[in-house]
Amino acid sequence: MSNNSASVFINGATRPSAAGLAGVVALVVLSGVAVMAGLWKVLVIGWVAFVAMAGAIPLGSRSATGASAAQLVWGYGLASGAMITSAAVFLVPQAIGFDPRVGGFGVAAGILLGFGSHIVGHRMAHVESTFDDTAVQLSAHALSAGVIIGLVYGSMPELGLLLGLAIVSHKGPAGYAAARRLTQSGRSASVILLPASGVGVAAIPSALVSLPSVPVVNAAVFGFAAGVFLHVAMDFLPECEVGGEVGEVANVSGDAHELLDRLRLHAALSTSLGGLAVFVAWLAVGP
């Protein structure tokens, strides 16, 4: 690593963030609550999400001076493909099974509300300039996903780990891209520890909430969960366009159609393999 790269890494990845450290402390404290309550699956999912995103911080900071667009495409593609497949296979059938129409409305509400909150989050982040908009958006994603994961596993503890792990599979590439962006702008990448902790911090308390055994309520919850996760998964689909995140990493200009076409092939293959991986895991675990 060159002296310049090392300087970028040290300044961007190791400067402490009070918000990030607070998130880690909250996760550790709530982990004790999860152990006492026997919420082992939620605990594992929360810590896998944390390790995936926190572990990507130094990688993203180090790549700020020479990132690979293809690597980012494959990270996003595998994760989003796994998330879409998991939501469609494990959550949508549950919602429809409880009540087809209410479950369908729940899916629609989750997608639309997810999109709306994403747009509002963008606007609030730009208005409130004292906190980085990347951290705001990732934290909102993490907290909403955590609440839903907690409710789903709290109401159906027999669900396997495959669903939760696939849902948080985007944490690694998301943390990588965010750390790279923050380091390039001269900001502390350690603030990403806040959204890294967010899934567990939100999931553990919500898993303690007991939902009533009413089919309509369960249909709405599972449908809404599926809709939100589908929105998040589609938000992370690698879009290989000029001006987009992948195009920014590849340093493409207006005349880069050949490069973008190659990256689009990577995107199509990676998302397909992400979905296939969940299918293979499902076969291995057993229908």
Short structural summary:
With 287 residues, this protein is mainly alpha-helical.
Order of helix and strand elements from N to C terminus: HHHHHHHHHHHH
Largest sheet: none
Alpha-carbon Rg, integer: 19 Å
E-strand count: 0
Describe the SSE topology.
Elements: H1 3-13, H2 18-37, H3 40-62, H4 69-98, H5 100-127, H6 133-155, H7 161-167, H8 171-184, H9 193-207, H10 215-235, H11 245-249, H12 257-285
Helix pairs in contact: 1-3, 1-8, 2-3, 2-9, 3-8, 3-9, 4-5, 4-7, 4-8, 4-10, 4-12, 5-6, 5-10, 6-9, 6-10
What this model shows, in words?
- By secondary structure, the protein is mainly α.
- The chain has one domain (3-285).
- Helix content is 79%, strand content 0%.
- It is built from twelve helices and no strands.
- The protein has helices spanning 3-13, 18-37, 40-62, 69-98, 100-127, 133-155, 161-167, 171-184, 193-207, 215-235, 245-249, 257-285.
- The longest helix has 30 residues, at 69-98.
- It is globular, with a radius of gyration of 19 Å.
- It starts with a helix and ends with a helix.
